[in-house]
Amino acid sequence: MDWPRTFIAGLKAAAMGSLIGTSIPSIIATGLGIALLAEGGVGSLFLVFLPFLVGLFGAIVGLLLCLLPLTIWLQKRQNENRRVYLTSGLIAGGVSTCLIMLWMTDGDPFAILFFGAFGVFTGGATGHFWWRYARETEVDSGLDRIVETFG
Global pTM? Predict the structure, then answer.
């Protein structure tokens, strides 16, 4: 694994996953930030970037704690594919977000499911882009072996 290239690909995957997973909260936060800015609150500009920054942090932590160990394990088994990364990203993003919200809200089911859905989107998108940017080019799809065998 080429670590500098993998690091850049991981940052790209986390940023894209965060953009996709937090797009709806970012639109809502932008509207609130503009409304608060009109009232004179310059600090409300931070509100505009808050969903993306929280999603980016979550995506990077998930990438480090889930997708990198999974990648190392799958490399040893020679069983990497897009479906595995997408599914593990969906599960890890949803479960981790639901557990955090369970702790933060004392079990409020609406908050857990609402924010858990955005965790699922962010995790799934991060897993997809991790495959796309970091792994797809390094995994032998078998096509080269078929062409080699049959000419």
Answer: 0.81
